[in-house]
Amino acid sequence: MDPVQTLSRPLIILFVYLARPRMSRADMEQDITELWHLVETLGNSQVIDLIHQKGEEFNATYIGPGKAEEVCVYLKTHPTDIIVLNGQLKPSQKFTLMKLFWAIRPNIQIWDRVDLILAIFSRHARTAEAKLQIELARMQSMGPRIYGMGMVLSRQGGGIGTRGLGETNTELMKRHWKREIKRTKDELAKSAASRKRQMDHRKNLGLQTISIVGYTNAGKTSLFNILTHKKHLVENTLFATLDSTVGEIFMPSLGKKVLISDTIGFIANLPPSLIEAFKSTLMESVHADIVLHIIDASDPLMTEKIGVVNEILNQLKIPEEKEVLVFNKIDAAPNLDRQKISGLAGDIPHVYISTKTKEGIETLTSTLLPQVIQRNT
Predict the structure, then answer these.
(1) pTM of the prediction?
(2) Can you tell me whether residue 185 is helix, strand or coil?
(3) 37 and 175 in one domain?
């Protein structure tokens, strides 16, 4: 059950943050700020406090027994609906924390970073395919945890040499989990096959394709709307787009139409399981002739976020030769050092635009894109 949908009042959230020993204060603050933005995107929620721990990950509780006890003391006097931990917890770690915290607040939920992102994905899912992708990612994330809970039941069910109730529950849960995984993968395979047929059909017609990628909230959908004259929802939130949306633009200098797609936004530390679950959507980017990497030029963390996107593009095996860098929001960055950025871009084609004022859009569509398309033809 989704607490975001079922509670009328704002959710009360406690952050419990584990910083690595060599993590700088600036990196830690950046990480916490992004967590904060994720919770804002979740909606109907408020962060009431932050409990911080610095050190190596602890095997049993992730945050260590002392810090876990500190959280228990906190929960005795502070109403809390959800505890959000910044990492990706092992099944045993999450279950150990559940047992500790449930003893004080039986209805509390314990989320790691994957759980938080999946809750946001659920909020933005529009199509059946997106909902299936979220369902698959959630099952892949939660399956081992369900199994871990089953093992505890098995210890309660019977003694040595017996087949207890808990052992039976464990086996039933594992079989059910595997069946549901297979069912969802089969449904997604049908969607992927349909998408692949559409892409093959476009190529057979000689249609070239452009895909817009970028860090979430960089302005991908705003650019897509301008280029295609469509009016897809633009929100100042993370992960506003989950589904791949395809439109077309006419380029007079080439005398033909080109297809363009908008896809899911990326984020730092996006778990591999989520990338895997959304591969059918990301196929539009993998098989595109050109990949427009849109960047928020006004973001102080611009360089780091470019690195995050490049890392994911590398995971998807998208070659650098396909990439065009589009530095957006220049209206909000009047002191942008374009010479320095051009030096960092190197041989990758790049352009400076503002989807708000339309500055640079003509250069992108009339000069840069036609040049790149002709080069790749």
Answers:
(1) 0.75
(2) helix
(3) no
